[in-house]
Each structure stands twice: as C-alpha cells, then as structure tokens.
Amino acid sequence: DVAEKGGYPDFMLKEIHEQPRVVRDTLAGRMVGGALKISELGMSLEELQLIDRVYVIACGTSYHAGLVAKQLIEAWARIPTEVEVASEFRYRNPIITPTTLVVAVSQSGETADTLAAIREARIKGGKVFGITNVIGSPVARESDGVIYTKANKEIAVASTKSFLGQVVSLTLLSMVLAQAKGKFTQAQTRLLFGELADTAEQIERILADTTAIEEAALACKDANDALFIGRGMGSAISYEGALKLKEISYLHAEAYAAGEMKHGPIALLSKGFPVIAVATQSPVYDKVISNIQESRTRGALVVAVATEGDEEIRKHADYVIYVPRVRDAFSAITVSVPLQLFARAIAVARGCDVDQPRNLAKSVTVE
Ligand code: G6P
C-alpha cells in the first residue's frame, strides 16, 4: 500500500502531484510541424466548420470541466455552448441537429447517465466526441471520436488529476474549433499552446510550497459551511472547489457566481463564515474584489486565490493563496490545484478518509 502510494500518505495527494505529468502527457505529440493536430476527432475540417452548437454533457467533476470548456469555446470559437448534467440532458429532448457537436466527458468512460446521453445524441443525429481516461471504455467505443486524458488510473474517489486532464483536453478541443472557425491563426494557436504547456511547470511551483494553503485550511476546518465565489472562469472553477471540499471533508460547501451574492448567499454570512474567492487577474478582477468587500463587511473570513505579485489583495482577504500568472483562459488549470489541496487539508484535519469518502463511488454505472 505504501509503495503504491509512492511515499504519499494517500492516493489523493499522490494524484494531485502527478498533475504536471498529466499536462505534459496530454499535450505530447499534439503540435506537429507548427500545427495543432487531434487526428482522433473523427471529423473533417468541413464538418468542424459547420458546427453551430456544442453541448458538453457529463456528471460530477467532469461536468465542471465542461463549465470551463464553455468559457473557452464561446470566447475563442464563438460557438454557442451549453453544459448540462447527463441525467438532465437524457430526459429532456435536447435540440440536436447534424451540425451539433456533443462532447461527452467522463473519467471512467462508463457512467450510466453519460452513456445514455451519448446514445440519445446519436439517435438524434448529432456528432459525439468523447473525453475519457479509460482506453476502450464504453464512452470511447460509442463516440465518433475520442481524446484520452492520459491521467492514468485514478484511485482516489474524488477526481483531481483526471479533472486536470479533462480541462487540458477540452482546451485543445476549443483551440481546434477556433482554428476551424477561422478565429485563430496558426501563430496564435502556437502561442497559446506554448503557454498551455507552461502550466505544467507552474503547477510544479504551486506544489513546491503549500504552506499558505494549509494555513488557510486550518482556519476553515471547523466551519459548518463555506461559500466559493468567482466570476467568469473563476466561477467555473469555484464549483469544482466546492464539490471537492464537500466530497471529502463533509463540510457543506456551495459555489456561486460572485455577482449573485446579493441575491441570496450573502444572507448566510456571519462572523467567521469562510468565503473562498477566486480573484486571479482577469477582466472581472475589480468586480470580484467588490464581492469580497461585501462579504468581509458581513464578517466573512475571506480566503482569496490570487495572482503572484498582487499585493493589493492582502488588504481585502484574511488569507491569500498565490498562483503563478497565466492568461485567464488557463486559470482553471492553476487555480484548481490549490483548491484540491485546500479541500484535502481540511479533510485530513477533520480526520476524514480522503481517498474513500462515505457514500460515494468512483464510477456510477447504474442510474
Ligand atoms: C462519480 C465520481 C466523481 C465523478 C463522477 C463522474 O460521482 O465519484 O469523481 O466526477 O462520478 O464520473 P465520470 O467517470 O463519468 O467522470
């Protein structure tokens, strides 16, 4: 067991530390002769150009990777994109035409609802593209094309490295769509690809010093509830931060688009209530700061995830976790890592079994 964990106290921590490798392996061989290639797509350039709607369907953590993808596909390729949990999608007669691309995201490749959604999409004539971690899995077999996430086997029930592999794969897919739609030149794609590859080293830097994350976790460990907030990409990643925390520490956590605070969640806040804010550099940074201020005025204990070099944030937050500067499009990759470590540190401090949380299964093959 100790050997299997590679010297780490649990699989979750081992898998969190594998993430730089996951980035590198997922990107390996993708840039060929200066051009981005996903030959497994199973679609011609003409077919890609015709896509006028994208659905990302998934469950759990994979659904959150879909929220990230929506931000990227819409920003880059300008294709309307919806993200939907598979259990809803399969029963609501979704609008699918031959120019709809359905992207099914599933670590295990065998989640019952996701498979049913794939079948539904194909019956309706849509193209299905799978993103999975398991070679030859049902999702891989039943999709028109597939990207494998190269996370390798994930043992901890709460997904970490698979999520990262999914986000990186979906980022590649978004770039391919943007290219096909004529929104990116090859030079732009190459520039972005280089920055995407750099995130491997940036994650290594985050993993090298986790003191600030552990301090923030200790301050929050006895709370009953926590709120994760962010805007744009920060909102997408907040949902995953909250899910990770509730899954493994049993601390009730919710995520909200920060702009919605005043429409409900702010009523929850009182002295010491943890608010975890994704406040990295982005076009909506100032807006997030004002949401942090309104939380603090109500006594919240604010943990901010911010960009290295941002000293200003210290005035607004009780704890600051710094991540390296990346463009906003790649912030889900860097920010997810400290949020995983934050959830794990709280779970460990609360005496929870981080690898095998109660009531949860690694893969859900029944409805
Ligand atoms: C279960 C797992 C989650 C996972 C979800 C979807 O709930 O505990 O970690 O995100 O299923 O699984 P999939 O294999 O389809 O990504």
Q: How would you describe what is shown here?
A:
By secondary structure, the chain is of the alpha/beta class. Helix content is 44%, strand content 17%. It has helices at 11-17, 19-27, 45-50, 60-77, 86-89, 112-123, 138-142, 161-180, 186-208, 211-220, 233-249, 285-297, 331-349, and strands at residues 31-32, 35-36, 53-58, 81-85, 100-106, 127-132, 145-148, 225-230, 252-257, 274-279, 301-307, 319-323. The strands form 3 sheets. The protein has a 5-stranded parallel β-sheet with strand order 4-3-5-6-7, with helices on both faces. The structure holds 6-O-phosphono-alpha-D-glucopyranose (G6P). 6-O-phosphono-alpha-D-glucopyranose (G6P) is lined by residues 59-62, 106-108, 111, 114, 157-159, 360-364. Its main location: cytoplasm. Residues 44-183, 216-357 form the SIS domain.
Task: List the defining traits of the structure above.
single chain; 367 residues; alpha/beta; 5-stranded parallel beta sheet; 12 strands; 44% helix; 17% strand; globular; binds 6-O-phosphono-alpha-D-glucopyranose; glutamine amidotransferase; transferase; Glutamine--fructose-6-phosphate aminotransferase [isomerizing]; cytoplasm; glutamine-fructose-6-phosphate transaminase (isomerizing) activity
Can you describe this structure in just a few lines?
The protein has 367 residues and is α/β, with parallel strands linked by helices. The chain contains 13 helices and twelve strands. Keywords: Aminotransferase, Cytoplasm, Glutamine amidotransferase, Repeat, Transferase.
